[in-house]
């Protein structure tokens, strides 16, 4: 009896060489469409907001993100702005290292402050115990019989 192994399977691409289901592309929305959807969503009564999202095939997170962008002034109907979306500049290796070292320095300073506080508390506890020990020694007077 032969047990099939992964190498026994036939390739999923047909003999023609083309994939029958091409990879889906990400939807891209224009700034004008985003502004229109945000306005329509905000002006709709509470019971109809979900219907708008279903009709357009959107999620509520789209509206939230687009509303924040509009309020921040990033989203406008200007076609010149939509032609070249602003990409986040990559941080240089030195800048990444600098941020990492700053975070480490902050953590070490915090740890040092905690250690100093703990040592202060231990010192005070030691002084208190020493004082209590001396007072108990003085309270016991030698007995004469």
How would you explain this protein's 3D organization?
- It is a single chain.
- By secondary structure, this protein is an all-alpha fold.
- It has 2 domains: 28-86; 88-140.
- 59% of the residues lie in helices and 0% in strands.
- The chain contains 5 helices and no strands.
- The chain has helices at residues 31-43, 49-56, 60-71, 79-83, 93-139.
- Helix 1 crosses helix 3 (60-71).
- The protein is elongated and about 105 Å long.
- The mean pLDDT is 81.
* Helix content percent band: 55-70%
On the 0-100 scale, what is the average pLDDT?
81
The helix count comes to 5
So what's the overall shape?
elongated
Beta-sheet strand percentage? Answer: under 5%
Distance separating the two termini: 104 Å
- Give the biggest beta sheet: none
Radius of gyration: 35 Å
Give the number of domains. Answer: 2
Look at the helices and sheets and give the structural class: mainly alpha
């Amino acid at each position: 009896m032969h047990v099939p192994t992964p190498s026994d399977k036939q390739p999923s691409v047909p003999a023609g060489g083309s994939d029958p289901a091409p990879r889906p592309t990400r939807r891209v929305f224009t700034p004008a469409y985003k502004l229109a959807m945000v306005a329509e969503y905000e002006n709709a009564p509470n019971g109809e907001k979900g219907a708008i999202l279903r009709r357009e095939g959107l999620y509520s997170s789209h509206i939230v993100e687009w509303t924040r962008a509009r309020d921040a002034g990033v989203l406008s109907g200007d076609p010149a702005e939509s032609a070249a979306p602003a990409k986040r500049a990559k941080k240089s290796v030195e800048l990444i290292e600098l941020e990492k070292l700053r975070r480490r320095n902050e953590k070490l300073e915090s740890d040092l402050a905690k250690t100093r506080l703990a040592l202060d508390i231990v010192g005070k506890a030691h002084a208190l115990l020493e004082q209590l020990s001396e007072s108990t020694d003085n309270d016991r007077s030698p007995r004469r019989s």
